[in-house]
Design a protein that fits this description.
This protein has about 750 residues and is mainly β. Among the domains are: about 305-355 and about 520-600, no CATH class; about 370-510, Sandwich (Jelly Rolls); about 650-720, no CATH class. Helices cover about 5% and strands about 45% of the residues. The protein is built from five helices and 53 strands. The strands form eleven sheets. The chain has an eleven-stranded antiparallel sheet with strand order 2-1-6-7-8-5-3-21-22-18-14, with no helix packed on it. A ten-stranded antiparallel sheet has the order 23-24-25-26-36-37-38-39-40-41, with no helix packed on it. A hairpin with a 4-residue loop joins strand 23 (about 305-315) and strand 24. It is elongated. It starts with a strand and ends with a strand.
Length: about 750
């Protein structure tokens, strides 16, 4: 047996059963992104296995994850694991600039998923193929399959946990033993065809009776791809078959021979027997050959209608290209019109969903045919949960569903267990939330949720409930579970059904029973219009919701959102509009760029630096705020409050010649001769110098220059506190000098 680890610990000895299952489409032999499913049973009586959603399992170094928790962590734990291919079950939200190449797309997908892709398995012609489209609603896994198909291959996760690509039958095995099998028909590939029922089919080959059909949704496919695939598989002969059981090793898309017959494995289940025993194989390879004419006819009659029309209108001198897709209640229209006076492009989408009397159809869970029966000698809760989802879980997103099941209770005992009988399943969303959707009948209780009558000890009915799943990405969907959580002489729950719609099939509806009727109409419209005079781009979204209760309209809500960019010779206009409510106010923000400048109305403006800090913005009161301003030869007017000015020099000028007040490293200068409105003594100039003062005139820190040019200095020197003159009138005059060493009187003589 393989080496199995969990959280880095070898748990091989705890594994009691191990099997692998791989499956590809029996319609398309190429372009499958194959996920390996592992069914494993573990002896967990010591409780070593827990937190399984947070940690991977390693089987011979290949990584597998559990995406659903077990019912409970019991001594015998049965788990379903998948390899890294399930990490591609996410919508492709590209950040590439188109057109691009398949190589760039694969590199981006690798970055988005964290799963390495071995591009060396693909031919250079495919890798360098130019791509000018993508579909954000499509899963990354679909894109991987499309790219693989272009090279005539399928994608799978190798033992190195990377995506690899391989041809049909690249591995061939000889089997010498078979328990039994059913031979269907022989296949001899003579033609390769890609057709979407819209454009001219792409084909290669001379015979249309044994056709290798390519996926019509694959927009990567070109005639060169069809030719390449034809050269790979022309003349490939094998048999279609069912239920081949043998011993050995094999994977999906491998070929094998048995006697003189050759087969291709499409569905492989391999059970590991352990020790020296060879693994048990259950292989299916049912493949129906295609007829080109029948394929084309079938596509044209399908529910999905695609129409591409190119026409030349000589009268109007224009070319018009229209692409239209109508599917159920969704209508998409694209229109490109080229004329002498301009180019016009319109894209519109209209969705009309009426949740009225939608009757359900098709059970979206499989294996729902068997009943669950509980008798009086069974006193514990009983359940069955082996009914898996039979569609892609992404198809449930935002959908209305109804759950129904038949129940029977005979001589129910009130007060034991939880008094309920019914079905449920869990949906896990990508944001981490989880919700249970269920329908139950309750013994001896009044069930307000489904407005059932007061329960009695005996009851037989088919019950149902309606839900609308949340419109967000779904990460997991549990198996459908039938539960009998009550005690009775006999209790039965049978034939559960989960359907799309708001009413289950098989019911007669009383019009008075209809409580709610919600109609939602959504319109999306995008227009590009280029004329001789201008270029405009407009996008409009309108959503109207009408809610009625018992036929009375209670609320009408309209939401209009639009954005328009218009380029004209005289200006550029950007407008954003929003209106909520039928009579609600319309909020508009306009940006206009013309010869007079930039004009913004109805909104604010802000400029951020690389650190995300606002350096320029208008606040809610209309004040303009500037941070870290650097101005060269700028002019400022008005009042400046509370400012700190940092710089090497500051000057105040009446003209452009020289300042009347200046402050620099040399000191402060006030020069009244430079300013007509400044009045000082004798129109002179006062200087406060930073030079250290001495008795010498030219080093004194205070200098006054009169209007006639005469310079006078305050006589300050080193260690001198102050100087004063004492007039004695009758006594001699003295000059008094006070220093740190004392006070000195110098006698003065009159002149």
């Amino acid at each position: 047996m393989e080496t199995i680890k969990f959280k880095g610990q070898d748990i091989t000895c705890l594994v009691t059963s191990l099997s692998y299952q791989e499956e590809i489409s029996n319609e398309y032999l190429l372009g499958n992104a194959i996920a390996t499913q592992v069914n494993i049973t573990i002896n967990n009586k010591d409780g070593l296995i827990k937190d399984i959603l947070d940690y991977p399992f390693s089987i011979d170094d290949k990584i597998y994850m559990a995406y659903e928790k077990p019912e409970r962590y019991t001594g015998k734990m049965e788990l379903v694991l998948y390899d890294n291919m399930l990490r591609f079950n996410a919508e492709y939200q590209t950040g590439l600039v188109y057109p691009t190449t398949i190589t760039e797309q694969l590199l981006e997908i690798q970055s988005l998923t964290g799963v390495s892709i071995c591009t060396t398995d693909l031919s250079s012609d495919v890798l360098k193929k130019e791509v000018n489209w993508y579909d954000s609603s499509g899963l990354i896994r679909e894109f991987i399959g499309f790219i693989a198909e272009c090279d005539g291959k399928n994608a799978y996760i190798g033992k190195d946990n990377k995506v690899h690509f391989k041809q049909l039958g690249s591995n061939n095995y000889d089997l010498s033993y078979s328990n039994n099998y059913e031979l269907i028909e022989s296949v001899d590939i003579s033609c390769v065809l890609w057709s979407n029922g819209v454009t001219e089919p792409l084909s290669k080959g001379i015979d249309d009776k044994n056709t290798l059909l390519l996926n019509s949704d694959n927009l990567y496919v070109s005639q060169d791809d069809v030719n390449r695939i034809y050269e790979l598989y022309k003349g490939l002969k094998f048999y279609s078959f069912k239920s081949f059981k043998s011993l050995g090793f094999m994977e999906a898309t491998d070929s094998f021979t048995y006697g003189d017959l050759k087969f291709i494995a499409l569905n492989v289940k391999r059970t590991v027997n352990g020790g020296l025993a060879r693994d048990s194989l259950e292989v299916d390879g049912e493949f129906t050959t295609k007829d080109v004419s029948k394929i084309t006819d079938a596509l044209s009659d399908s529910q999905k209608i695609k129409k591409v029309e190119a026409r030349l209108n000589n009268d109007e001198t224009k070319i018009n290209l229209t692409a239209q897709q109508v599917e159920k209640n969704v209508k998409n229209i694209s229109d490109l019109e080229i004329g002498l006076d301009g180019i016009k492009s319109d894209v519109s989408k209209s969705i009309e969903s009426i949740y009225k009397f939608e009757s359900g159809s098709n059970n979206i869970f499989s294996n729902c045919h068997k009943p669950l029966i509980k008798t009086s000698d069974e006193i514990n809760t009983k359940f069955i949960n082996d009914m898996p989802l039979d569609i892609n879980k992404s198809e449930l997103k935002g959908k209305a569903i109804c759950i129904s099941t038949s129940i029977e209770v005979i001589n129910g005992i009130v007060g034991q267990l939880s008094n309920r009988i019914g079905v449920e399943f869990d949906v896990g969303y990508a944001d981490g939330t989880k919700k249970t959707y269920s329908v139950y009948w309750y013994l001896g209780q009044f069930d307000l949720q489904y407005l059932l009558q007061t329960s009695t000890a005996d009851h037989e009915e088919r019950i149902w409930a309606h839900f609308k799943l949340e419109d967000k990405e779904i990460s997991s969907v549990s198996n459908l579970k039938m539960i009998i959580d009550l005690n009775a002489e006999r209790a039965v729950v049978a034939n559960p059904k989960v359907e799309f719609g708001t009413r289950p099939t098989g019911f007669d509806f009383d019009m008075s029973y209809v409580r709610d009727n919600i109609t939602t109409i959504e319109e999306n419209y995008t227009q590009i219009n280029q004329t001789v005079n201008d270029l405009s781009l407009k996008a409009v979204n309108q959503e109207k919701e009408i809610t009625t209760i018992k036929g009375n309209i209670t609320e009408v809500t309209t939401r209009i959102q639009s954005a328009e960019i218009k380029l004209q010779p005289t200006n550029i206009l950007l407008a954003v509009n929003e209106q909520i409510g039928a009579n609600g106010q319309l909020y508009t923000t306009k940006f206009v760029l013309d010869k007079s400048g930039v004009h913004i109305s109805g909104g604010g403006i802000d400029i951020k630096n690389n650190r995300g800090e606002k350096v320029f913005y208008a606040d809610t009161k209309g004040n303009l705020v500037i941070n870290n301003l650097t101005a060269i030869n700028g002019t400022f007017s008005g009042t400046i409050k509370g400012s700190t000015i940092i710089g090497s020099s500051i000057g105040f000028y009446e003209d452009n010649t020289s300042p009347y007040i200046s402050l620099d490293s040399g000191g402060l200068i006030i020069d009244s001769t430079k300013a007509s409105q400044m009045v000082t003594f004798d129109k002179g100039k006062l200087e406060l110098l930073t030079t250290w003062g001495y008795f010498l005139n030219n080093t004194s820190p205070i200098k006054y220059t009169s209007s006639d040019g005469t310079e006078r200095f305050a006589i300050f020197g080193r260690n001198i506190a102050y100087i004063e003159f004492e007039c004695g009138y009758t006594d001699p005059d003295y000059l008094i000098i006070t220093s740190i060493t004392g006070t000195y009187r110098i006698k003065c003589e009159r002149v």
